[in-house]
């Protein structure tokens, strides 16, 4: 059995990272057939299948995901080497994969980073709490911005802001002019929940449990955008963390009495990633931004 070589692993990593053979070939500066040949040789040498192929692209098999968790660090090592050899040069190239739980704060940081480093390519995706954390630990993203991220020694974190849980009500709703609202009052109105691994819904559930209350949702929706639109159309009242969106039209945000605590929004990455120059640059921008948000 022939042993794998670095070129094969490099090709495998590129396809695993981009889920597209053509994009991987462009990234590595080689032809698409060359990438395909490297991966097929690797699979044939060990009698395994690393990717499932379809008309829309490729995706990792279970074995492929297991392998990528180990080999992804090689890409990080390449960037560290490049940083060591070219640390005196201005940051003019690079790529960052960022995943975030909400767009509002993320876009603010992206705008500032792009202003300082306009030639760095940014690939940004959004998802719920579960998807964001999985993307980091499975090395599908370099950085993440999330509310109440997991406490893990493998992660490097920077605190950005604190936010509260708000009740969203239609602008002409009876509760819209109140300074605050209790969960008991909401029992008289149709309620909209999030579904899936949502930190917002988890926060609502925790608050209700502490208060010894139970609310039955009229409808459960997957995204905060869907919840916002449903509230704006008068379907019921919903919930959102205060920094998740800056939208104000047709909706009022009312603080909840049983949810007084703040929820930290943090930027984080796997610790080895911090050695990459472009990652450290983003952390520098975020820390400077966060410093400007705190009272002097």
Automatic annotation (TrEMBL):
A GO molecular function assigned to this protein is: DNA-binding transcription factor activity
Keywords noted in UniProt = DNA-binding, Transcription, Transcription regulation
InterPro entries given for it? Answer: HTH-type_LysR_regulators (IPR050950), LysR_HTH_N (IPR000847), LysR_subst-bd (IPR005119), WH-like_DNA-bd_sf (IPR036388), WH_DNA-bd_sf (IPR036390)
DNA-binding recorded as keyword: yes
Q: Record's GO cellular component, any one?
A: cytosol
Q: Does the keyword field hold Transmembrane?
A: no
> Which residues span the membrane?
none
Write down the superkingdom of origin: Bacteria
Stretches assigned to coiled coil: none
Q: Which Pfam families match?
A: HTH_1, LysR_substrate
- Where is the HTH lysR-type domain positioned along the sequence? 4-61
**Mind telling me which PROSITE patterns this protein's record contains?**
HTH_LYSR
Family the entry assigns:
Belongs to the LysR transcriptional regulatory family.
Q: Tell me what this protein is called.
A: LysR family transcriptional regulator
Q: Which organism is it from?
A: Aestuariispira insulae
